[in-house]
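Figure S7 source data.
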Amino acid sequence: MAQGLRLVLIGPPGAGKGTQAQLLREHVDLAHISSGDLFRHHLRQGTPLGLRAKEYMNRGELVPDEVTIDIILGKVMSIPDDDGFILDGFPRNRNQAQELDKKLTAESRNLDKVVHIDVSEPALLRRLGGRYICRACQSPHAIGLGEDASARTCDQCGGELYQRDDDAPAAVKKRIQVYNDETMPVLGFYRKRGVLVEVPGDDTIAEVNKQIMAAVDVPTARKL
Ligand code: ADP
Ligand code: ZN
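Tokens for the predicted adenosine-5'-diphosphate complex:
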């Protein structure tokens, strides 16, 4: 395979980063590294990392950098040189962005594009309230107002759907605030480097996917 794309998806909680990462992978062969999925995996397994991360996640705060950075950068740097990747949920503050940058630059594996999925706050609040995740494969599902979530199973694998603890209203408010205060400045960091692309994320999943594919130059024809 030709040299893979190295992408970062940045967007507020509920922007659809996980969904869009999965859709991109239907078109182009990329490793998907989701810091949130990784923490939730550890949480389920009850590992020391999971126990440490849990209190922060449930409050809607960032897991401390000294925990987060090593584990994510370890994953990124273990990807073979020529393979592409999508980072979803990392970096989430300036320090994480700088540490990622140092590692990648040292190996001349700079990021190709950083995609900012921009969604208005009312839309985020609406989405997070109806967001259910598959216990088995982690794919997110939207449950409409008044729809019975327990009657639904995962579209991908038939697994059980559940609502994340940090999708409770108080944690959602905190996550949006943390995003505005800590993650938004990362956009400026990448804008200066000329790798930032902006994609409006209020539209349908399919439309946002089209825009991201265009922004990162993945021709729709390049199906796997
Ligand atoms: P969302 O983007 O919907 O908030 P994620 O699944 O990306 O959800 O993250 C869930 C939680 O995991 C965050 O609120 C945070 O506590 C923790 N987390 C994920 N990525 C990071 C990161 N890069 N740095 C610190 N904490 C993180
Ligand atoms: Zn599933």
